[in-house]
Structure to design on (927 residues):
């Protein structure tokens, strides 16, 4: 690995991160809060350390394929550490484990929190929490590529290592333009949501924070009761809609903005994802009706909760742990799948699930017709064999991480439902799970080691497993 | 500029690499996902999988916003069709690689313009031109020509018996008088020297001279070479290039051409097409055969078959039998760098020539073309003198050329000249400047 170039870039990323901390500083100043000094200190500290890293490494060569993984993994680690500083220095989360957990949970858009009384915290800290999710949603690296002009081919390697999905769709010839367009669209949709929520009676500050965490499919709320705090149907439906939008590939949004709205429905992944979501909403609505909820509440809650889980946002409007046990199982399946590739959502991704299902069916067909060739098609496009293999390996690693993660959590003394679902929730960047970490609970009671493990799983999950795990192979480090 | 390249083969990917580093926005279309994956892994370009003639694929690639289309697939018809479609989308410049010569001859029913093509690149023709130049002037190490090839910079070795050996530039000037023999650089033992009036030329130097093409023979004479001593040429491979080279050479009565090919059918066709050339059936790796055919008397051996490995082996064999000059056609650009290592003189790579021809056309902006002289680490630039240029109306002697650079040619409307001190520069003139690498930036600043 080209260590110098990697450090230099991470330095630059830290400078940008430190600068972005001035935003919560400004908010804190506006609300005349005590958190100002802590936040300002964090900002200055991060900027100077980043600046030092940048200055101490002289300009070096172009990044290679390998360096991309290094920059992304170590970059995310450093950013998560730096992101914990505001919590520590303002004293809002006094110990390192908790602060790091909250920071990682933010940047990876997981939304699992250790805060017991969220509303007690200063506006500055609450904004920082939401902001980390927003930055992490579209990607820290994608953001740097959009801003830094000199990345070129190296930028593409990093883009590939960070972006979720099978293949990276470039929508423009240059990676920088693609990154710019993605961020502009992301910003635009976020602003629209802020305005719509404001119109629904939410205050500007809460509207902004919730929009930041909806569009990133993060799920941090400024309220203890999450979205359930708001009684308005309008707010519930607006957030449901925007969570769904955030879990749709941003490439499709770009095309829509260029006037090719039909592209949504012609995307096989979009059809699969939206039909499946609709189906789950229907099933759970029926279950709620049978349990005695009136139709308006049954539909509103199941739509919100299904979308919140499948998009890996993790907001709560209803305590689904009170729902029928089979329904909870359905929600766990949705957690595993997650949103579309190229969106801000986590999970295995709809397109991978599609390919896995098709491959499974083909293997069954082959038992009857061993000599027939069955290419895997998504729409009209044939999926190449190496991609199928990649998806199978991804799924295997995902399951292995899930099994060993669950075992480790169980060893720490957690019950099996909590162990399993908290691990899935971390890997898929959802947030709430079942058991002791359900939608009405938080992660503060998880043992110290469990928090570090979950934080690690969140990072692995956000960077789509391969990018982190490749650093653990010997091939990566040998010349 | 937004450029769409159809075909991600050797030419396409080479162009994509060069143009994307020159700040053009490149999109590449190819139907082979593996080739595309290779490109997208190493270049900052957009890739689209599909047929270049498929309108939906072209739309996906954003053809309506493109400034230029370069169609370099292996199929002529696809390239032509793509250019015709691009015309419907109002793409400004359309370049196609076309192997079939039917489109480029005078009698063609369809002219490039009818098909909406602005520039046709013919790789075999480009290669043939290069090979002919190398055969005609075997003494020349390197040559770059400008102004419709009427002026050139020639790199040539000063051999024992040269008239200019041991003389200073001033003495050479006195002797040659009116003849324009301008020494722009010398490579002495790997070191590049920009000579001044009192510097002397020595035997063994590689002299880089700017001169009119009609005076080449005088240049050869001054540097100690015989003017024209190629009489026997053996060509291996009755390919399109092989036949074109033979055809051009046999027009010269002094040259005797032997064409060797292992394929009877190909050989028969070549024999019928070529009246003076002697066609021999057999492999060039057959030592007995080529000895019998007099390989030892050959001045030049050119391996021009379509198999790179056979060409290399045949040339090595000829080299071993002490043929003074061997020329090897190599299609895989990856082989080009090893040519010198394995002891061959010159490799000709049609794909590189093709992309160079396209690049030259694309760069026809202010800095028209830029070509490297490999032997001395120098570059030649061709500048268009614009109305806002700092040098308009000035005479050459009044322009402050950076150290290590010199104007070697000026092309007015009525033809090219080698400039002297009082040659003026007007708007629309093209100036060719020779510059060592260190001075290049200042030269571009002065004219750009």
């Amino acid at each position: 690995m080209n260590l110098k170039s990697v450090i230099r870039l991470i330095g630059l990323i830290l400078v940008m991160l430190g600068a972005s901390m001035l935003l919560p500083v400004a908010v804190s100043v506006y609300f005349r809060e005590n958190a100002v000094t802590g936040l300002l200190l964090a900002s200055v500290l991060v900027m100077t350390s980043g600046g030092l890293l940048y200055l101490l490494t002289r300009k070096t060569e172009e990044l290679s394929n390998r360096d991309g993984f290094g920059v992304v993994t170590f970059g995310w680690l450093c950013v998560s550490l730096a992101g914990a500083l505001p919590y520590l220095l303002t004293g809002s989360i006094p110990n390192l484990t908790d602060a790091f957990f909250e920071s990682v949970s933010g940047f990876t858009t997981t939304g699992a929190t250790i805060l017991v009384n969220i509303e007690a915290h200063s506006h500055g800290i609450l904004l920082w929490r939401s902001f980390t999710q927003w930055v992490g949603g579209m990607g820290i690296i994608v953001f740097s590529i959009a801003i830094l002009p000199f990345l070129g081919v190296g930028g593409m390697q990093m883009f590939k290592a960070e972006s979720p999905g099978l293949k990276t769709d470039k929508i423009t010839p240059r990676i920088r333009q693609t990154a710019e367009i993605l961020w502009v669209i992301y910003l635009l949709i976020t602003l629209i949501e802020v305005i719509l929520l404001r119109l629904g009676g939410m205050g500007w500050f809460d509207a902004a924070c919730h929009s930041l965490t909806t569009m990133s499919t993060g799920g941090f709320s400024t309220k203890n009761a999450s979205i359930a705090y708001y009684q308005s149907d309008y707010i519930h439906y607006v957030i449901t809609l925007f969570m769904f939008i955030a879990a749709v590939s941003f490439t499709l949004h770009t095309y829509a903005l260029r006037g090719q709205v039909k592209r949504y429905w012609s995307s096989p992944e979009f059809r699969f994802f939206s039909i499946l979501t609709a189906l789950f909403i229907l099933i759970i609505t029926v279950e709620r009706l049978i349990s005695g909820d009136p139709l308006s509440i049954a539909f509103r809650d199941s739509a919100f909760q299904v979308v919140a889980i499948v998009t890996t946002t993790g907001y709560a409007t209803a305590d689904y742990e009170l729902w029928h046990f089979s329904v909870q199982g359905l929600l766990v399946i949705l957690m595993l799948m997650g949103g579309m590739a190229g969106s801000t959502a986590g999970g295995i991704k709809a397109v991978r699930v599609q390919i896995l299902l098709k491959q499974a069916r083909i293997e069954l067909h082959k038992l009857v017709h061993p000599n027939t060739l069955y290419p895997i098609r998504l729409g009209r496009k044939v999926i190449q064999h190496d991609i199928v293999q990649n998806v199978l390996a991804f799924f295997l690693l995902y399951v292995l991480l899930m099994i060993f993660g669950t075992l480790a959590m169980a060893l720490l003394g957690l019950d099996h439902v909590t162990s399993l679902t908290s691990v899935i929730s971390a890997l898929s960047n959802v947030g709430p799970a079942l058991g002791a970490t359900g939608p009405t609970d938080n992660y503060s009671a998880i043992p110290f080691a469990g928090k570090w493990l979950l934080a690690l799983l969140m990072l692995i999950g956000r960077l789509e497993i391969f990018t982190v795990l490749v650093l653990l192979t010997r091939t990566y480090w040998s010349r | 500029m937004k450029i769409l390249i159809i075909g991600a083969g050797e030419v396409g990917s080479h162009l994509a690499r060069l143009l994307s580093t020159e700040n053009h926005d490149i999109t590449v279309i190819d139907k082979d996902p593996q080739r595309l994956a290779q490109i997208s892994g190493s270049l900052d370009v957009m890739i689209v999988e599909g047929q270049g003639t498929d309108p939906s694929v072209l739309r996906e690639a954003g053809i309506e916003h493109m400034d230029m289309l370069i169609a370099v697939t292996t199929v002529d018809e696809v390239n032509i069709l793509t250019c015709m479609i691009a015309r419907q989308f109002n793409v400004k410049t359309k370049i196609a690689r076309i192997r079939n010569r039917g489109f480029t001859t005078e009698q063609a029913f369809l002219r490039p313009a009818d098909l909406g093509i602005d520039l046709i690149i013919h790789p075999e023709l480009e290669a043939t031109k290069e090979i002919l130049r190398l055969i005609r002037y075997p003494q020349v190490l390197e040559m770059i020509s400008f102004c419709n090839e009427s002026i050139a910079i020639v790199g040539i070795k000063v051999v024992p018996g040269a008239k200019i050996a041991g003389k200073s530039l001033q003495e050479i000037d006195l002797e040659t008088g009116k003849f324009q023999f301008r020494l722009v650089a010398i490579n002495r033992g790997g070191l590049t020297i920009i000579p001044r009036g009192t510097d002397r030329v020595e035997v063994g130097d590689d002299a880089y001279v700017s001169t009119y093409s009609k005076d080449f023979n005088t240049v050869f004479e001054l540097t100690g070479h015989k003017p024209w001593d190629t009489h026997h040429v053996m060509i291996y491979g009755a390919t399109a290039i092989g036949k074109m080279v033979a055809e051009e050479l046999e027009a010269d009565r002094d040259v005797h051409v032997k064409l060797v090919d292992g394929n009877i059918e190909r050989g028969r066709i070549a024999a019928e097409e070529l009246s003076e050339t002697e066609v021999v059936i057999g492999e060039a790796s057959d030592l007995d055969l080529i000895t019998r055919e007099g390989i030892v008397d050959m001045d030049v051996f050119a391996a021009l078959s379509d198999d790179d490995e056979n060409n290399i082996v045949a040339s090595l064999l000829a080299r071993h039998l002490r043929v003074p000059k061997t020329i090897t056609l190599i299609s895989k650009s990856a082989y080009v760098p090893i040519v010198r290592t394995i002891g061959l003189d010159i490799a000709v790579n049609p794909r590189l020539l093709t992309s160079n021809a396209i690049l030259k056309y694309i760069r026809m902006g202010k800095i028209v073309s830029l070509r490297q002289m490999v032997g001395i680490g120098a570059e030649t630039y061709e500048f268009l003198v614009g109305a806002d240029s700092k040098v308009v109306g000035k005479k050459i002697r009044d322009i402050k050329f950076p150290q290590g650079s010199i104007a070697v040619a000026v092309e007015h409307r009525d033809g090219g000249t080698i400039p002297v001190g009082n040659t003026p520069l007007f708007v629309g003139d093209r100036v060719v400047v020779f510059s060592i690498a260190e001075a290049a930036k200042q030269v571009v600043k002065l004219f750009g």
